Amino acid sequence: MHDVSVVIAAGGSGRRMGGRTPKQFLLLGGAPILERTIAAFHSLRAVREIVLVVPADCVSRAAAIVRRAGFRKVAHIVPGGKDRQASVFNGLEKCSFRSGIVLVHDAVRPFVRRDTILSVIHAAGRYGAALAGVPVKDTITIESPGGSGFSSRTLRREELWAVQTPQGFHFALLQEAHMKARADRFHGTDDASLVERKGTRVKIVHGSETNIKITNPDDRKLAEFLLGEGRTLQWRPKAAPPRAR
Ligand code: C5P
Description:
The protein is of the alpha/beta class and 245 residues long. The chain is built from seven helices and eleven strands. The longest helix has 18 residues, at 217-234. The termini are far apart. Bound molecules: cytidine-5'-monophosphate. Cytidine-5'-monophosphate (C5P) binds next to helix 3.
């Protein structure tokens, strides 16, 4: 079993959601989104430490959530950078289990499933790098340059995956990939793309359609709905009364 460190990227300001509170701190069914996301990883035995990366002015707010929920595996809460990549870089610097696997996860994906996390850990151990993703259902087209409003090229859907987190890596591999991206001034929107640039293949693991990224107000409504669905699914009918003879 690998030692697993988890970096939770919660350093965004969440401007697309509107309002002043970053979306990862908004309540979902009475608990902050960030708390729900941490809980998904905290309960796994392989997870040895969790490093939270949050906006610089939210460190004490995050610490209060961690204290109240009793998340003992949260080893560090560090300030984020100017983009996601810079935030993850800050988180990696604080990880202790450098011979193991590191998972990177978006704080705003609280519905990540246990089996997805375990599959990513397993595939990262075996292949060095893995990501959770789902096959794309929509047809994806590229707009012609300059925001013309016209499509210029439509991609072959059969080859496309929507990339999610968690993504998992041998620690040294991800750290090298981040160093290289930094040196090349390359900015990616996820970690797997940095590893691909180094020439390492990233194994795709099936995630789930419900592992949504809560980005805008509509996503938040969908999240409330998914939470309700989860509760409904957990509901069990009472045992039927014994039949009268
Ligand atoms: O920017 P995007 O929507 O892809 O954000 C995905 C995750 O990255 C979010 O959980 C967000 O808080 C985090 N992030 C970060 N530091 C930034 C920007 C985004 O940790 N500077």
